[in-house]
Specification:
Blueprint (H helix, E strand, L loop, with lengths): L6 H26 L15 H11 L9 E5 L5 E3 L4 E7 L8 E6 L2 E6 L1 E2 L10 E6 L9 E12 L2 E12 L5
């Protein structure tokens, strides 16, 4: 004579099965994220740009690396409203990588192209600049101003954002 399974035992077994399935799905999905549509490609066959971005964004054990960074203004910096704002930064690009950096302010599309200022000239985005003018958009009063730099290289994108505070200039 068989004893019927208790409700608690059924719940534990069902939970274990669901957890196992979820883990299996995550591993299967992670394999799809590998370069070249799921095929294993030795690192030496990927371009250096694609390999660096794949390692930076797919490695769950390392801290997230950014291929682009805004160096000025800094997070939380107070910026006067009504004046042009020079935004500068760095990226992992160089003059031969054919990569680009663009900027978006407070979600106002489209992204605006930055200008490469690295040692290799205008195509070298290892250093870059963008001047925010009222022709594109302006800062809003308060801390809700988000500047995002987008690095695009060989179909892969990386983003970096800073929030700045818009302040009105007082005249006496």
């Amino acid at each position: 004579m068989e004893m019927p399974m208790s409700f608690e035992l059924r719940a534990i077994l069902l939970s274990y099965a669901l957890l196992s399935f979820a883990l299996w799905m995550n591993v299967s999905h992670a394999q799809l994220l590998q370069p070249e549509a799921g095929k294993e490609v030795p690192p030496q066959k990927l371009s250096p740009n694609k390999q660096a971005l794949a390692n930076a964004t797919l490695s769950p054990l390392s801290p997230k690396l950014h291929a682009v960074r805004i160096t000025s203004p800094t997070k939380g910096q107070q910026i006067s409203i009504g004046k042009d704002l020079e935004i500068t930064g760095i990226s992992s690009a160089n003059s031969t990588s054919h990569c680009q950096v663009s900027i978006i302010m407070n979600g106002v599309k489209p992204y605006q192209p930055a200008t490469g200022t690295g040692p290799g000239g205008a195509a070298d985005y290892s250093k870059w600049i963008f001047v925010l003018t009222s022709k594109y958009t302006t800062l809003k009063p308060g801390p809700a101003n988000r500047i995002t730099a987008k690095y695009t290289c060989e179909g892969i994108s990386s983003f970096y954002s800073v929030n700045v505070t818009g302040v009105t200039a007082h005249t006496s």
